[in-house]
Amino acid sequence: MKEKVMNGLQRFxxxxxxxxxxxxxxxxxxxxxxIFTNQKLLETVPFLNNPITTGFGTILxxxxxxxxxxxxxxxxxxxAIGLAKKKKAEAGFTALLAFLVFINAMNKFMELNKTLxxxxxxxxxxxTMVLGVQILDMGVFxxxxxxxxxxxxxxxxxxxxxxxxxxIYGGSRFVFIVIIPVTxxxxxxxxxxxxxxxxxxxxxxxxxxxxxxxxIFLYGSLERLLIPTGLHHLIYTPFLYTSLGGTEQIAGHIxxxxxxxxxxxxxxxxxHLLSKSVIWDARGISKMFGLIGACLAxxxxxxxxxxxxxxxxxxxxxxxxxxxxxxxxxEFSFMFLAPLLxxxxxxxxxxxxxxxxxxxxxxxxxxxxxxxxLYNVPLGVGKTHWPMYILVGIAFFFIYYIVFRILITLLxxxxxxxxxxxxxxxxxxxKDFKEKEKSKAIVxxxxxxxxxxxxxxxxxxxxxxxxxxxxVTNCYTRLRTVLRDPSVVKEDVLKNExxxxxxxxxxxxxxxxxxxxxxxxxxxxxxxxxISDMDAELE
Length: 539
Hints:
The radius of gyration is 25 Å and the shape is globular. The chain has 3 domains: 1-200, no CATH class; 281-440, no CATH class; 454-533, 2-Layer Sandwich (Gyrase A, domain 2), CATH 3.30.1360. The chain has helices at 2-15, 17-35, 39-44, 51-68, 71-83, 88-112, 140-157, 172-211, 213-225, 233-241, 258-266, 285-301, 307-324, 328-335, 339-358, 369-376, 381-384, 386-410, 430-444, 456-462, 491-497, 518-529, and strands at residues 127-130, 133-136, 247-250, 253-256, 469-474, 478-483, 502-506, 509-513. Helices cover 60% and strands 7% of the residues. It has a 4-stranded antiparallel beta sheet, with helices on both faces. A two-stranded antiparallel ribbon has the order 1-2. It contains 22 helices and 8 strands. Pfam families: PTS_EIIB (PF00367), PTS_EIIC (PF02378). Keywords: Cell membrane, Kinase, Membrane, Phosphotransferase system, Sugar transport, Transferase, Transmembrane, Transmembrane helix, Transport. It is an enzyme of class 2 (transferase). The chain crosses the membrane at residues 12-36, 56-84, 91-110, 130-153, 174-197, 308-326, 332-356, 363-382, 388-408.
């Protein structure tokens, strides 16, 4: 039972990548639009102050804000695609149809019950307009609920076929036939149930606000602690896209969730200071600063004969973490050897967010330094207080360094470069280190070369062979697989011969950490398994 629940959560977490990972792109483009309309920049660079560039910036940021007001349909379609095991395009199309059926069914039922409020003033009534249809304000939860239901129904009935004259009603058509009554019934039930759920969500949001800095600490720590399970997305997603992360009225529209709020505020020149809810997306401070201090401590405490090799391993990982916010290569370098340090890291990550909140820092910092600059610099110091974010980050660089160095030396923790001589860690032998770096280089260049240059056959073999692999997906940094028998996985081969920096096994779910080059690895593995783009699991 426990394994079934974990597998379900793993699949849901993976499916969430589709809608969640596309939204930061909208945010970056909104930030670019702000560059062309930033008053201080226009004063400094007068030639940009013309109708063409300012008009472009206004259109770019203004048009992308519309994505934030339609998150329900985006999550519905994205989740259905992610949860579908086959024929994902049909699942996405069915999800869109189900969404349209749902909102109109709920609207008509509320109209028959005479519970619709005047559309002129919906603020604070619990009702809203979705794609021009007035329904209960369910926000992104509507998309999540419908996306899950469509995914389940699709997987259950997509292979249903009929004979003779009914043949045309099989497959995806039958899925739609089944989904119509399910969706209509759901719309009726939620008309009664959702107000109760919304009250519960509001109460939870109130509890989080009452706990204040402790709630922020718990949030930041749990988000890091769940990294090994791959379920950390379930912690931050509700705060970024639902009322748990705050509610604000901006330019006449109600926005829920930290990320939705600050995206809208970025595009509104009338907003002079970002809302406090931005703290829920300040998760990047440990990625940009803290883990660099941890790496420096691991380098300084490594055995003298290993320092050259440790430096070669840690520097690329530090650069990736600082610039892009990808932390797994660093975290996995000490997590399995010294779990205590991983717990300390999680605690310090939560503490750093508390400090930002106490100092009233409103900077946007979810990932790495590149995103940080694009988001905050165009908005100005007054709107974000971003220099203070950097100062806090520098302070935590030293805190991480001191704490990690003391713990490593005091407890004699076997971090990178401090392993016992008797322990066979191939990563640190000269021959195997060169092979690892060669594998990394091959994977990194794979997107511009033939798939055959990625050791796909070796990866498949190390995972137990083609017959052992049930499905293959990927996220930002991990190759995510479901295996029939995880016990046959060759961890040493994956780490030392294919460039993997970590391995996570939870039941039948096996995740192999490859970093930013995982997309190229995934494509090569798909090709090795004979999976076409149409059949591939999307993330």
